[in-house]
Amino acid sequence: MLRGGGYVPALLPNLPFADKQFDLVLSGHFLFIYDDRFDYAFHLAAARELARVSAGEVRLFPPAGMNRKPYPQLEQLRRELKQDGIESEVIRSNFEFVQGWNQILVLHSKSR
User: Fold this and answer.
1) Number of structural domains found in the chain
2) CA-CA distances (angstroms) from residue 2 to 8, 14, 22, 28, 104?
3) Considering the domain boundaries, does residue 2 fall inside one?
4) Which domain holds residue 26?
5) pTM (predicted TM-score)
6) Which of 61, 72, 71 shows the shortest CA–CA distance to 98?
7) Which candidate, 107, 105, 112, 108, places its Cα nearest to that of 28?
8) Residue 34, in any domain of the structure
């Protein structure tokens, strides 16, 4: 993450940023791809944290694993985020870096 022209070292699921500090938060080629290394609790906590620091929306690409299949717990994650007031939608992307990775999970906080 950039701040004042430089990177700020940070680790999910605990970011050193204020609530709603960014208008747009992007996470590409990290979450969900490594579902064999990070468990569901990590993915949920990371999504919540990214939503916390966003004043607008969070875009997570792709909501799929290395096997190119959708993240198996995606609907459960979306339900739990909704209980926290974080709406979500899966949208199609014209960008397909890897065959089958053509969707984006978009999060919107109700309290923008």
Assistant:
1) 1
2) 6, 16, 11, 15, 22
3) no
4) 21-109
5) 0.89
6) 61
7) 105
8) yes
